[in-house]
């Protein structure tokens, strides 16, 4: 893979690509003898994606540092030490556009027009994922441009209309779940 290609990848795509590369290496060792060339590259990628979306954490660097969580009553916030509610599925819909779903609650993370983050059973809550210069990732609402996902110093959801991508409260780091 060319270095220039890597630079254009968003974090989620990059994670899934690098994961699929390493996964395909180990898979080809075990499966090649059975199915040979019939097992398409696409299959490797899909398996890797399924693994990837299983669980991950989104760490926000604001305050003492919080992991984003979606509670079962739809409340979105942060927790310092990860809990089962901070296990998230971050899936890429296309390059730079992701959905975020709490695994325990089954709810998608949505952003209202007023900038209130909440969980809902609607899959059309999408975010534009941007890799910032400091290597942190920001998530802005796809349907409400300029509204950012953010946590306060106390780890509560912060109104997305009053923050910007240069503020630490909007800076997230994808992490593998323990
Ligand atoms: C949601 O649940 C959390 C934790 O149980 C609780 O602190 C919070 O008040 C609840 N929010 C609503 C809107 O019910």
Helix share bin: 10-25%
What is the terminal separation in angstroms?
Answer: 29 Å
Q: Any idea what the CATH architecture of the largest domain is?
A: Trefoil
Major β-sheet annotation = 4 strands, antiparallel
Q: What small ligands are held by the chains?
A: 2-acetamido-2-deoxy-beta-D-glucopyranose
How many distinct beta strands? 10
Q: In terms of per-residue confidence, which ranges show pLDDT below 50 for 5 or more consecutive residues?
A: 1-9, 17-38
Q: What's the overall geometry?
A: globular
Share in β-strands:
25-35%
Radius of gyration: 17 Å
CATH third-tier fold name of the largest domain: Trefoil (Acidic Fibroblast Growth Factor, subunit A)
Structural class: alpha+beta
Number of domains: 2
The gist of it:
This is Fibroblast growth factor. By secondary structure, this protein is of the alpha+beta class. The protein has three helices and ten strands.
Protein architecture, described:
InterPro entries: Fibroblast_GF_fam, IL1/FGF. This is Fibroblast growth factor. Keywords: Signal. Belongs to the heparin-binding growth factors family. The protein is α+β, with helices and mostly antiparallel strands and 178 residues long. The protein is 25% helix and 28% strand. The protein has helices spanning 3-7, 11-35, 41-54; strands at residues 56-60, 66-70, 76-79, 88-94, 97-102, 108-111, 117-120, 127-131, 137-141, 172-176. The chain has 2 domains: 3-53, no CATH class; 55-176, Trefoil (Acidic Fibroblast Growth Factor, subunit A). Helix 2 packs across helix 3. A hairpin with a 5-residue loop joins strand 6 and strand 7. Bound molecules: 2-acetamido-2-deoxy-beta-D-glucopyranose. 2-acetamido-2-deoxy-beta-D-glucopyranose binds next to loops. Residues 71, 73, 75 line the site of 2-acetamido-2-deoxy-beta-D-glucopyranose (NAG).
């Amino acid at each position: 893979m060319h270095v220039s290609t890597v630079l254009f990848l968003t974090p989620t795509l990059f994670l899934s690509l690098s994961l699929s590369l390493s996964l395909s290496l180990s898979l080809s060792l075990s499966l090649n003898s059975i199915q040979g060339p019939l097992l398409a590259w696409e299959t490797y990628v899909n398996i890797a994606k399924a693994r990837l979306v299983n669980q991950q954490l989104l760490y926000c660097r604001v305050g003492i540092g919080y992991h984003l969580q979606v509670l079962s009553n739809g409340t979105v916030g942060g927790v310092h030490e990860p809990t089962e509610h901070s296990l998230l599925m971050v899936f890429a819909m296309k390059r730079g556009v992701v959905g975020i779903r709490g695994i325990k609650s089954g709810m998608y993370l949505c952003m209202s027009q007023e900038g209130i983050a909440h969980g809902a059973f609607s899959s059309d809550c999408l975010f534009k994922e941007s890799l910032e210069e400091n290597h942190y990732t920001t998530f802005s609402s796809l349907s409400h441009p300029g509204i950012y996902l953010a946590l306060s110093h106390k780890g509560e959801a912060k109104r997305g209309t009053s923050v910007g991508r240069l503020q630490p409260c909007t800076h997230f780091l994808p992490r593998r779940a323990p």
